[in-house]
Amino acid sequence: MSEHPENYEDVTIYGLDDDVEEQLLLAHNECTFIWSNKEGWPVGVIMSYIWRDGKFWLTASGQRARIAAVRRDPRVCIVVTSTGSPLPRNKTVTYKGLCTVHDSREVKDWFYPDFSEALQGADPVRRDAFAKFLDSPRRVILEVEPTQRIGYDGAKMGKATNEWMKRQAQEQ
Q: Is residue 163 in some structural domain?
């Protein structure tokens, strides 16, 4: 990065590379899930997810307020950061997306084992026990298809800032 702006007014030049983004989404399993309540206010919670075929998959009990909200208005937002993942810190990606609520046995049959393995590990006893635990009568699966993304790589910004500061010091 040879040029650095005089300030941080435009940080879009520090975007998250596609390959790093994919690594982040597969390595992590926690996001902030944001929806709008009846009054139109944004509300968010931390949720576990799996990233499969370009979509986020999450689960919650059907009586949760967020389920009624996304049935009313499927526009949601998901934020993932590298904090807590095996990747270096300072990487984030935010998605606007459309949420579909699933309660079919077909979706639950593939989702619960896959989700359980992502959260509990490959041990079949733990994985299967957690999948069984999840399979409760009111539980639904949320599928979020991204429609827009904003990626940010703080390491790029840090490197560019250090280079700019060195040039500034040399000019004085």
A: no
**Whether the Cβ atoms of residue 117 and residue 28 lie closer than 8 Å to each other:** no
pTM over 0.85, yes/no: yes
With H, G, I as helix, E, B as strand and everything else as coil, classify residue 59: strand
Using one digit for the tens of pLDDT, what is the confidence trace for 106-143?
999 999 999 999 999 999 999 999 999 999 999 999 99
CATH number reported for the structural domain that contains residue 82 in this entry: 2.30.110.10
Q: Tokens 């899930």 label which residue? A: 33
How many C-beta neighbours within 10 Å does residue 121 have?
Answer: 11
Residues 62, 70 contacting (CB under 8 angstroms): no
Beta strands per DSSP E along the chain: 30-36, 42-48, 50-52, 55-61, 75-81, 91-102, 139-153
Number of folded domains that form the chain: 1
**Length of the chain counted residue by residue:** 172
